[in-house]
Amino acid sequence: MHVHDLWKSFGPQAAVAGIELTLPAGRFIGLVGPNGAGKTTTLSMVTGLLRPDRGTVRVAGHDVWADPAAVKARIGVLPEGLRLFERLSGRELLGYMGRLRGLPGAEVDKRAAQLLDVLDLAGSQHKLVVDYSTGMRKKIGLAAALLHNPEVLFLDEPFEGVDPVSAQTIRGVLERYTRSGATVVFSSHVMELVESLCDWVAVMAAGRIRAQGPLVQVRGDAASLQEAFLTLVGAGARQPDGALDWLGGGGAGTGVGA
Ligand SMILES: Nc1ncnc2c1ncn2[C@@H]1O[C@H](COP(=O)(O)OP(=O)(O)OP(=O)(O)O)[C@@H](O)[C@H]1O
């Protein structure tokens, strides 16, 4: 996947400021960055959901904005703030998504049953999506994104709000998927997670890419990815002397009514 000179501004603010990215196929890739770094904006432009102001994106051999249908047939997306058809059951949702993807009915049934089983949703498959928990929604969203066996899967914060058991289940499915040669790109600000899952990372801050490459290379001599990340994004010197000196101590010393 190649991203060239990609820009997006909201009013005067550049959310993504001219990024260059070359992501290898068949890898587990983490896009990391602090809140507001531009990860979601980048993933939205890369997956054809948000039109860039400038720049090009090629995914799975096609230009996302010149040939969106070709790209969308080859990718799966689990977006942030996932919107699902709430009044369908999980099973119906997968059936519907499979048919939208042009898969034959019998194949949709087979794949849906297997995905529901592996993701531990078989027992809830007839429940309406509106009644699913946050973790269940992530899992049914993941099942819908995998149903057509995409070449590349994009996940925006896939583990947010997910309990450890469900996270382990999702992780297992993703590891199996990448072992077969497919590519996963996911965004997160949880460094431990990225470090344990990914073999390739891109670090983003304030709309720019600060580093990209194999995990070991980006981590360099730092003890952890977290440490390397804090150095890269220039964090750590945010609290001037005296800031928040009123905080703590159970409300004493406010000088108000004392
Ligand atoms: N639709 C929008 N309108 C205005 N500003 C936006 C919009 N979407 C994003 N932004 C701004 O662009 C910047 C990047 O936001 P983005 O959501 O891409 O960051 P992020 O790295 O995904 O953050 P987080 O980890 O908190 O989800 C932020 O300053 C945000 O306020």
UniProtKB/TrEMBL annotation:
Domain of life: Bacteria
Chief place of localization: membrane
SMART domains: AAA
Coiled coil: none
Membrane topology: Peripheral membrane protein
Ranges where the ABC transporter domain occurs: 1-231
Protein's cellular compartments: Cell membrane
MF-aspect GO terms: ATP binding
Keywords annotated in UniProt: Antibiotic resistance, ATP-binding, Nucleotide-binding, Transport
PANTHER family found in the cross-reference section: ABC TRANSPORTER ATP-BINDING PROTEIN, DOXORUBICIN RESISTANCE ATP-BINDING PROTEIN DRRA
Protein's name in the database: ABC transporter ATP-binding protein
Organism: Streptomyces beihaiensis
